[in-house]
Amino acid sequence: MDFCDKVVVVTGASSGIGAATAKYFARESANVVLIGRNENALNEIAAECEKAKGIKPLIIKAELSNDDEVKNIVTKTIEVFGRIDVLVNNAGYGGKAGILDGIEPYDHIMKTNVRAVYLLTSLCTPHLVKTKGNIVNVSSVAAFRPIKDLHFLPYCISKAALDQFTRCLAVELAKYGIRVNSVNPGATRTNFVLAAGLSKEKAEELYKVRDKVMPLGKVAESEDIADMIVFLASNRARSITGAIHVIDNGENLV
Ligand SMILES: NC(=O)c1ccc[n+]([C@@H]2O[C@H](COP(=O)([O-])OP(=O)(O)OC[C@H]3O[C@@H](n4cnc5c(N)ncnc54)[C@H](OP(=O)(O)O)[C@@H]3O)[C@@H](O)[C@H]2O)c1
């Protein structure tokens, strides 16, 4: 899976799944564009990426709910590299919210998890047309079913929307030779639940319980998800488009 001279944009590259994905692409000799908000974390991940093959990643700090900052991602990437081969729409977040919490959590979550993905993808697509590139979206098993012990109504809706985005876009862009796929993780050990407002203790408790209920006896690690993302972005997945790939240690079976 050689990504030599390819330009790969990864959102949410400062943490968890996005960071593991960026490092994997760097090991495959890609020019990686790291998107996130936490500058210190981005710098650390960039240093790790550079260590792999000596290729310096481009860091672009961006708040994805801000349209101008999303536009700047594409402007800067083209300025520096002149092309985009792969877009990984990974950044996203969840939060405890139900119907009685009103519309605000819905607007907030949809802005990052869906609207920003739509905007960034629309701006990247003319460049992906030129390179016959591809897109990988990071969704969730929450797209198919409610999360049992957390009430994440807007998050679940956002991921269901993202899956339909993947399918519709795959059909729309197939004529340009662009593939669009989704990876849908189940519980994965990252900062996700902390960002969603859980304490460290609660997060550990949650993972312990999840470790037991998973048929494979464990939650996933970021690297497990990165493996699939990089595979889908590679030419080895040349006949795969519009497909939703669940990685959940068998949780959906129990
Ligand atoms: N972990 C799980 O159990 C799990 C399960 C299913 C799906 N997922 C999905 O996997 C993806 C990655 O999450 P993760 O588990 O790796 O969580 P994470 O460790 O919390 O990482 C989330 C990343 O998204 C970025 N991000 C979030 N909101 C942003 C915004 N408004 N603007 C810019 N960047 C933003 C964060 O940037 P900063 O840290 O720099 O702010 C961070 O890099 C998400 O789409 C999530 O929904 C996770």
Write a structural description.
- The chain is α/β, with parallel strands linked by helices.
- The protein has a single domain (7-248), classed as 3-Layer(aba) Sandwich (Rossmann fold).
- It has helices at 16-27, 39-53, 67-81, 104-131, 153-173, 192-195, 200-213, 222-233, and strands at 7-11, 31-36, 58-61, 86-89, 134-138, 179-185, 188-189, 220-221, 244-247.
- The strands form 2 sheets. Strands 3-2-1-4-5-6-9 form a 7-stranded parallel sheet, with helices on both faces.
- Strand 2, helix 2 (39-53) and strand 3 (58-61) form a beta-alpha-beta unit.
- The two termini are 34 Å apart.
- It binds NADP nicotinamide-adenine-dinucleotide phosphate (NAP).
- GO terms for molecular function: oxidoreductase activity.
- InterPro entries: NAD(P)-bd_dom_sf, Sc_DH/Rdtase_CS, SDR_fam.
- Keywords: Oxidoreductase.
Using DSSP, what is the number of strands? 9
Nearest-angstrom radius of gyration?
17 Å
Q: Ends: how far apart?
A: 34 Å
Bound molecules: NADP nicotinamide-adenine-dinucleotide phosphate
The overall number of domains is: 1
The parts where pLDDT drops under 50 for at least 5 residues are none
What is the element string, with H for helices and E for strands? EHEHEHEHEHEEHHEHE
Describe the structure concisely.
The chain has 254 residues and is α/β, with parallel strands linked by helices.
